[in-house]
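Internal ticket #5521
Category: modeling
Description: The requester needs a full-assembly model to guide mutagenesis choices. All entity lines are attached below as received. Residue total reported by intake: 540.
Assigned to: D.W.
Attached entities:
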Amino acid sequence: MTNEEKLKIALEKAAASLGLEAASNTIVIERSRDTAHGDYSTNLAMRLAKQAGKAPRDLAALLAEKIQEEAVEKIEIAGPGFINFFMKKDALQNVIAKIIEEGENYGKLPSKGKKINLEYVSANPTGDLHLGHTRCAAVGDSLARLLTYDGYDVTREFYVNDCGNQIEHLGHSIRARYHELFGEPLQLGDDDYHGHDLIDIAKSIKDKYGDKYLADNEESHDFFIRYGIDNELAKLKKDLADFGVSFDVFTYESDIRKGGTIEKTLDFLKDHLYESEGATFLRTTDYLDDKDRPVIKSNGQPTYFMPDICYHYNKAARGFDHLIDVLGADHHGYVNRMKSALMMKGYPEDYLEVTFVQVVRVFRDGAEVKMSKRTGKAIAHRDLVEDVGVDAVRYFFIERSQSSHLDFNYNLAMEQSSSNPVYYCQYAHARCASLLNLGEGIALDPSGKGLNNEEELSILKHLADFSSMIEGAARDRAPYKVAAYAHDLAEKFHEFYAKNRVIDRDNLELTSSRLALIKAVKIAMENALGILGVSAPEKM
RNA sequence: GCGCCCGUAGCUCAACUGGAUAGAGUACCAGACUACGAAUCUGGGGGUUACAGGUUCGAGUCCUGUCGGGCGCGCCA
């Protein structure tokens, strides 16, 4: 049981003994920001003051008297009525043995027995990844690792849109480049893809098949599309894999559509459909939406929304307890219509959760670079990773809450890549490794004996908070909190290192304790960086 | 015009979901390696939390309005 839980129970009992009602969810235990305010604090007395008909400070004193909890060293009343808890040190020191024993599993929470489907990136296979995808990939992948740590059974999924207009344009664009290679003038429309990567694809077709597909017939039409999708998807997979991002399942829209799924789904939804101006609309306003949405265009073709409904029904049918989509914030209008569609099939409103990743605005050479796959002007994910490195890029995109807008200065990122805070964390890890190497042969003492100074206690407290940090970060879908934790840990370690000598051959007892502490820090750092998808090097 | 997100130090962002003196990084200034890695540490300046009201013991956080920015507004995806 964590300290927070112990204190909650003790407070609940204390309140009850005074005849006050304190539901456990109204009891908030916080880590004190200032060490002068002890280890934990609660505002309970202030919240119950009205109910008790007493001044907050007086009530706090009464509560404090009634609290019985062994791990508490002393209690103080402070400020407007805070109750501050000072915990006994021995419980804190146990954390070292626990970390060393559990190793890479330290901080992992027991299985919740719940399956989550997490979909992220799902970039269309029509061109290279840009920095918006980079942020979604970093956030989605870290979120998957974080939720796994928190005890969920996570399936990582990528949805491949291999149907529709964009794909037609892809096929047409490659065909145009292919014809260009045979000396014909380039014929690209406004809606086609102008990126130069398609030239390489066209060249590879010419190398492999010569002039076989110059004829304008159905076979060559389908060939260019198929070849384009396969090549673009292979590139996406490689770029993501090089970025440390992988998926358990790739679901193709073309597979979803097989077997008349769209027709069957329309039939299922028939009570929610109506015709207007030749098109078919879904009455999503009966649920959460502010407008009804077209599912079949007046030309008889389904809109993008229709197969998306089928896809989400498909995910739901696979037995997940919860669905999470990580989407760019420009899709926010999409969430209510999809939730509505799921509710038509009987799923609760919160079955589908959408985590939005805010747009990245990119500045280079003082001007904003607008995202555009068509014109090929956007900054490519691959170029950034090559220029700055995987660890620095991942840290940069995970460091801040994904819900905040991010202005990304490309020139600055290049200049500052060597001062990226990720190295601060990695350096702490490498220092730990170095110390453990130097101290090889000295037995580690994980009892925590003799670790009493300010820096040591500060590290111990932080280490003990690992699990509650995981819980909070997972609950808030906030991998950036793991980055903040890693940075804090590094800071506390560097501070300790600067003020204390670890290896002292004349004091082996303390050295043994400190080396065990170092070992624990190293493990915690490696686990935290692992969630971020950042490496933990032994040397730098 | 309507809806969603946002506005915090020169810049990029935090603030444990309403708590105590609003914190980090970066940039700038001044210090610290003849003992374990200076990719580090110590100290300093830098704020009317866009603005104006309101709610209460307490507001960067909640409510209303104003200003400013981004995104989205039935047959593009």
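Resolution: model delivered.
Comment from assignee: The domain at 3-87 of chain A is CATH 3.30.1360.70 (Gyrase A; domain 2).
Ticket closed.
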